[in-house]
Every structure is written in C-alpha cells, then in structure tokens.
Amino acid sequence: MVSPRLYELGTLSVLVASRSAWELSHGITYLDPSSPVSRNLQIGGYQGLEERWLLEKSLRIPNLPGSSSCMRLSKLLAPSFAQQLLAQVQSQSYAVDNDSVDGLPSFEYYPMINGTWSDEELGKLLQPMVQELILPYVRSRYSCEECTVAEILVRRYLSEERRTHNLHFDGHAYATVVLGLTPPDEYEGGLYIQPTPHSNSRRFVQLEPGDLFVHSFDLQHGVRLWSGSRYSLIFWIKSSPAAVATGTTPWYHRSAAEGDPDAMYNLAGQFLQGIEGEVDVMEALMCGCKIGKVSFCIMEGQSFG
Ligand SMILES: O=C(O)CCC(=O)C(=O)O
Ligand SMILES: [Fe+2]
C-alpha cells in the first residue's frame, strides 16, 4: 500500500511535472492542450491543423452568459517562410509614437494601413497568404463573406523597450490574426487571452514561427514577457471593404442591439474616440449605462484597443 506521505509526494511530482518551474514561479498557464476541438484544415494549397478553444465569458457581466472562441492554426506555413518574414521585419525602423493601449512608445511597424500596402516588398511576400489563406479562413470561420484586411502591423518586444501590451480588446477589428515570428524558446511569456475580468482566466498561447492565432473583437488579450525578445505580425480585419475605407466598426451596432456587453463596451469606446463619426460622449454613456457594471470600466479609464 502507498503511504500517505509517498502518495502526497507522488501527487506533487505529477503537479510539478505538468507545469515547468518558471511557469509555476511566474504564475503562467497555457491554453489547455487537451481541451481544443481539433480538425485538419485544407484551404487552397495550404494544409494544416485548426485547434479551437471555446471560452466561457460569463463572469464579465454577472448573470449574463457569454462565450467566445479562439483558434490556433499550425503547420500551414513553412517555418522557413516565417524566418524570411522575421529577417525582413527586423530590418525596419519602428515607430515610437504613443501606443493606443498604454500611451508608451509603440515600437510598431505598419506594412499595411487602411487596406493599402505601405511596404510593397513585404506586401509581395504577404499578399498570397492574405488572399489565399487568411481571408478565406476568416470569412468562412466567422461567416463574414466581405471580411477585408484593414491593417497589418509588426510589434517588437525587446528587453530594453517593451515587456507588456496590457489587457485590451482590438476594438477596431472584427477579427484579429496574429502570426508568430519568434521561436517560443527565445522568450518567456508571450501573447495571452483573458476571457473574464479575473486574471486567473489568463491563458498564454504558445506560437511556433508560422503558427496563426485567430480571435474576434470580443476577446480580451495582451502580451507579457519576462525575458527574451519577440516579434509578432498582426492582421486587423474589418467586416467589409466599406468599413476599411471609412475606418468604421459597423458590426458593433447589431451585436450591441442584441445585448452583447463586449460589443456595447467597444462601441462606447468608438463613440468616445469619434470613430463612429463625431466624438459623442452621450452615446458612449448610453452604451455604458446599458451594460451596468461595464460602464464602471469606462469610468475607471480602462483603455481601448
Ligand atoms: O503581439 C501580439 O501578439 C499581439 C499584439 C496585440 O494584441 C495588438 O497589437 O493589438
Ligand atoms: Fe490586440
């Protein structure tokens, strides 16, 4: 018979074995590798794997159920392609203007702005993947026939520059695709999602170079690095070419009218920033009031992505 002490030690070793030492010391938890719904993907000439996590968001608003999902797409792009992209983006100069999430120097580089390539060379590398993989996938996954890429940006996280990108929604994007560029053994931490207000729902996402991570406007996320450097390529997608041309966010009106609290919260942010026309504090407050406690977040000055 196993003595209680040995049994305890046995349990402890199982716990320790399932989470690495630094994972435990930093309180980091990854998306559960055993819980996604997985399927093989074939999109045009691309083949790979889709893992989809369903996320319970009900804690955002007490008594209101809600869910979102996020997907990791792997093996679709050759690691050598990601390496080529990384080499190309590392040679660019990065902006140090104020970041929209935290107001600190952004260290961003934009190869596409408002649907137009500003970096033709990177455009040549990315265009086939955008047209033949990213858009067909997003259009089909979100039943959004007209979904169109609005912005593409690179984010650089170097130790002397940036360690975090605080928790936020991508308020101006119907869907976001993040392409991992840096091997995950070159840094500790990385991109995380957080479906509820409590940080205990935070889950980090392991992205190998060439893996894609996909989520929608209603999923809060951020980046936290404890060491090393990381580059990521981000695609912000709007629901139609007209939304790209006008820089607007038409998808919120319907979701907000249907009572989606995150849509109302983001719509309030759009009114405050004047993205839906004039800056309209009254409309923003109306959205905030409808969602009760979420308006508190706006009052608290939580930033909008
Ligand atoms: O760097 C990343 O992986 C994500 C950055 C992000 O969330 C953003 O730019 O909105
Ligand atoms: Fe984001």
UniProtKB/TrEMBL annotation:
Gene3D superfamilies named among the record's database cross-references: q2cbj1_9rhob like domain
All copies of domain Fe2OG dioxygenase, residue ranges: 148-239
Keyword Iron: yes
SUPFAM superfamilies assigned to the protein according to its UniProt record, in alphabetical order: Clavaminate synthase-like (SSF51197)
Keywords: Iron, Metal-binding, Oxidoreductase
Similarity remark: Belongs to the iron/ascorbate-dependent oxidoreductase family.
Protein's name in the database: Fe2OG dioxygenase domain-containing protein
